[in-house]
Amino acid sequence: MNKLLLTSNAASKEVFQMLQDEIVARLRSVGKKDNSQMVSQTQYHDAEDSLLKWGEHHGVKSKLRIAFYQGAGRGMVASESIGVGDTALEIPESLIISEELLCQSEVFLAIKDFNNITSETMLLLWSMRERHNLSSKFKTYFEALPENFNTGLSFGIDALAALEGTLLFDEIMQAKQHLRQQYEDLFPLLCTNFPEIFRKDVCTWDNFLWACELWYSNSMMVVLSSGKLSTCLVPVAGLLNHSVSPHILNYGRVDEATKSLKFPLSRPCDAGEQCFLSYGKHPGSHLVTFYGFLPRGDNPYDFIPLDLDTSADEEDGAAQSVSTSQTTHMVRGTWLSRSGGFPTYGLPQPLLSHLRAALGCDLDESTTEADIKENDRVVLETLLSIFNPMLEDLPETDESDRCYSRPHFCVGAIHLHHLPVVLISNRESASWDVKLALGYKDLQRRIISSIVTSCTSALENV
Asked: How far, in Å, CA of 413 to CA of 180, rounded?
């Protein structure tokens, strides 16, 4: 629109201006609840201020400043009003931590041929070591990072017990086991083979987990000026929080002319408003596990995965063969649907079509209205038979009296045995990980409950 306004004649310019104003107004209306729900806090942030000054000294250009928010930690707000297409943040490529930087380090030269080690693992080890390097170029950056990232990978026993029976429990356990195995494959062997580079006091499990959480929660996929797509850490940009309606969507390529990574806005951000970055199209389970939060508002990527087995019997006279296949449907909360009535009732059309075919309830031109209603009744009752048990497994107990039994499970060499019941007397006083686990279960319950409610309401009308 900006280009059209510059090149249009007087007759059409007025129309284009009206259209542009309407587009900007609609962009501005997106995500207004994000800031109304965030309470700013007065807090000292010397490390973060030092990071901004360090960045400016090395060529960072920014229209943002740091703020702290209740329940969300630090974030970045606009120090001036920033329009659509304007650059809020610009980071020189020389400050980006990537594989290209790794290749210049002594860590790479020492272990590049060690047991088929990957560049991603070497970057983890470099970060773990560089964090304790007092002469590091990135000393200010590492000092500004949190002592604990508080992701799902750091969940304690009580939080895991609260998640038992959910898919997130399985996801976190598998991730923990993978990381523990990775650590045991590396240490103490690296300390033995390269004692001057990998000190035992630095190469602990806690420091390794910290480095893993750093890369999971702060890394970005960036196309560098060399043309290579790399997983990178981008100092200063890591302070930006995620939102389901972010200001910044496209930031994945270094500008070849300026040799910098630019963060342009896709919707306006007023002065004093928090500026949000998109971390990607992730469901809540992924954000909890690797980032340590659930986004505010309705995340369109939250879903309940539903695996359905289908079997087809074929008779060839004397013998019978059975062919099986599996299909997976991602079922979202029905409040996100634009249509709550026939023929979808707020439910995914592919799922309904699949069930209609599997249950022999396909519709054609000869299907009577009575048969259509009967077929829908069969499909809806089938869905209720699937989702009602799920809802029963996630009971909504009194907020002030939540109990969970601690299960027996193990993480690598760590064995956590069956322990007494955990009583969570008050969510507000619970630990950060238990709060997050309960928040995730609430989200799952809300999605499943919406599906059950939609099916029940639909049955009343068929």
From this structure: 8
Question: pTM for the complete prediction?
Answer: 0.85
pLDDT reading at 236 higher than 70: yes
Picking from 333, 238, 242, the residue whose alpha carbon sits closest to that of residue 293 is 242
| Token pair of 391 as six digits | 């809802």
Percent helix, strand and coil across the chain, each to the nearest 5: 45, 20, 35
Whether the CB-CB separation of 358 and 310 falls below 8 Å is answered with yes
- How far apart CA 242 and CA 293 sit, in angstroms, is 10
pLDDT at 163 exceeding the cut of 80: yes
Q: DSSP per residue over 152-196, as a string?
A: GGG--HHHHHHHTTSHHHHHHHHHHHHHHHHHHHHTTHHHHH-TT
Q: Around 238, how many Cα atoms within 13 Å sit in the side-chain half-sphere? A: 26
Q: What CA–CA distance (Å, rounded) separates 57 from 401?
A: 53
Type and span of the H or E element at 211 = helix 205-218
Distance (Å, whole) CA 303 – CA 294: 13
**Lookup result for tokens 């659930």:** 294
Whether residue 284 contacts residue 299, with contact meaning beta carbons closer than 8 Å, is answered with yes
Judged on CB neighbours under 10 Å (0-12, 13-18, 19+), 129 is: buried
Classify the C-alpha dihedral 327-328-333-335 as positive or negative: negative
